[in-house]
What we know:
- The protein has helices at 10-22, 26-39, 44-56, 60-72, 74-78, 83-105, 108-121, 126-138, 142-155, 161-172, 176-189.
- It has 2 domains: 11-123, Tetratricopeptide repeat domain (Serine Threonine Protein Phosphatase 5, Tetratricopeptide repeat); 125-196, Serine Threonine Protein Phosphatase 5, Tetratricopeptide repeat.
- It is built from 11 helices and no strands.
- The chain is 76% helix and 0% strand.
- It starts with 9 loop residues before the first helix and ends in a 7-residue tail after the last helix.
- The longest helix has 23 residues, at 83-105.
- It has 196 residues and is mainly alpha-helical.
Amino acid sequence: MTTQRQPPDAGFYRMRGDAHFENGDQDKALADYAEAILLNPDDCYAYSKRGYIYSVEGEYDRAIREYDQAIRLSDAYINSEHGREYGPLVVSRAYNNRGDAYVKKGEYDRAIADCTASLRLDSDCAVAYETRGEAYAFKREYDRAIADCTEAIRLKPIRAEPYYIRGRAFQEQGEEEKAEADFASGRVLGADSAVW
């Protein structure tokens, strides 16, 4: 008796796309996510991952379109077999990542709205607090920036970026000692100081 081999499904292409992405091969990752979407047009995860790649490449408008589609599909995805366990986290990241793309484009109110939506789905998402804090800092709402970055640091103290953002907010408020302490923490953690 011979067993028939089943053709790969969308999950196979998602996982292989993730592997390509982790190995730095964005082109192959994009091709696999496209194949996953072809096999399952409601694949919120694949749209979100494509958005992330486009964001990393600086193609923010294209990234936002991918995140828009992921978010549109989010209800169906959360209730799907693949999305039941991780769906809310995937959708939370799609909102946060779209928010980050809006920050890069200078659309701070939209970024804040997306990060707030992200936090409704996952209140422990340190990066959403960080991204929202950065948007507040660009809007010169320094107290809010400091509060969000403080929460990001509480949740994930090993990330350098919120220290730099909060340090710049402190600096803008004339609190040099606090700013220098945050910059020093950021340097210890090894991030680029050109975050903000």
